[in-house]
Design goal:
This is TetR/AcrR family transcriptional regulator. InterPro entries: Homeodomain-like_sf, HTH-type_TetR-like_transc_reg, HTH_TetR, Tet_transcr_reg_TetR-rel_C_sf. The chain has nine helices and no strands. The N and C termini lie far apart (about 90 Å). Helices cover about 70% and strands about 0% of the residues. The protein is mainly alpha-helical.
């Protein structure tokens, strides 16, 4: 009586998801480096180390592929930042946790900022990616605003600041730091991030020596 031999290797579904992720990452890289219009399916397939025909088994066209890459980033980034804030207790700890998680996210997805910038600048209008990107940044600000509201409740917000202005200030710093990572070497970005943390913690300056 014959028996069915065991299936070796990874399941087909797992390999398919692995390939999909490779395509997504190649899309982010190509759009980040070349722009939306110049990032062709052929070039994305080349970076993903596959044929254009094989890529079409996963995505029917470039628009759907770029949209999937964008939604992938959105679906990962905001929950990570929000969860990082929730795990910390104090206001400063929450802010530092969000900054730290942002650093980890950008290390995991080094083309994320340039990819977002490219689709905001020139992606097809019918995809609504620029509008969706604005929504994501608004959601990030909501995370910051929640921390600033906690600071107000605990009396940790300075007398000349309110939740709205403080949220705008921290959110602007975060956006600027994201842009900074797309334009500078990693070591410069890390040094800037450390300085910003010191600034928020109130230890960037030696106030005993300031006039």
């Amino acid at each position: 009586m014959s028996t069915t031999p065991p299936i070796l290797g990874r399941p087909v579904a797992a390999k398919g998801e692995e390939t999909r992720q490779r395509i997504i990452e190649a899309t982010m890289r190509c759009v980040a480096e070349m722009g939306y219009s110049r990032a062709t399916i052929r070039e994305i397939a080349r970076v993903a180390q596959m044929t254009s025909g094989s890529l079409y088994h996963y995505f029917p066209n470039k628009s759907e592929l770029v949209k999937a890459a964008f939604l992938e980033l959105a679906g990962i980034s905001l929950p990570r930042l929000s969860a990082a804030a929730d795990r910390a207790d104090g206001v400063l700890d929450k802010l530092m946790a969000v900054f730290d998680e942002g650093d980890r996210f950008l290390r995991d997805h080094p083309f994320a900022v340039a990819f977002d910038r490219a689709i905001r600048a020139e992606s097809a209008a019918d995809l609504h990616l620029a509008e969706d990107s604005n929504t994501i940044f608004t959601a990030l600000r909501d995370v910051v605003a929640g921390i600033m509201e906690q600071a107000r409740r605990e009396g940790a917000l300075g007398p000349e600041a309110d939740v709205e202005s403080a949220s705008n200030a921290i959110h602007t710093i975060m956006l600027g730091l994201c842009e900074h990572t797309a334009n500078t070497p990693p070591e410069v970005y890390q040094a800037t991030g450390r300085a910003l943390r010191l600034l928020i913690q109130g230890s960037l300056f030696d106030y005993t020596k300031l006039a």
